[in-house]
Please model this.
Amino acid sequence: MTKKTDRIVDLPSTREMSDALPAVQAVRGLANLAVKTGLGGEKAKRIVDSADEVLSHADIIDLPDRFNAAFADRGWIATSSLSVEVMRKALERNEAGDADAADEVILEWVLAPDTINLFAITRSKSFNVAQDRWHQLREALALTVENRFWSAVPLILLACDGVASDVLGTSPFEKNADLSVFDSMVAHPTALPALIARLTKGVRKSSDDPMKLPL
Model:
């Protein structure tokens, strides 16, 4: 197996995007020069605008690493499905010293029924052998919408364990389970493996608030 990287930004697929930025900057510089000298016309202006658009989103390269560093210990990890704007806003709130507001930004997006239905339920249908778990996920969604987290959380964990066992033949909660996948954001060691490690630590302190249970 290829050596695992310490950061998501160092994954091959991410590195390809990062390595392309200097080329974008160079093309923009040439096109901008053409515009200033009056040689480029509308085509050069469009190139400059397109390059500016790409460069304005350059922070997306290291956004998952920054997000995981700030939120993994609180039970949140970056995935390809998580809204980029949500990650940005949550980081802004967190860096301003308001961790609760940061959590609210993420929760508002995650707990939206449409979001849960699309990313956590509908997409699971692509795993044919896991379709029997669909009813568990639907029930978990209904309980979540009703804020019945004491019932929803165990059912979600049960469904996650079942889907993984159906598809991979192993449980993500098994001791020393290798959940990492090379060149994957969600399966990066700082993401899902780190989150599952927290889930399997065990509860050392009870809480009356289900939203503050160890994740």
Notes: Residues 210-215 have pLDDT under 50 and may be disordered.
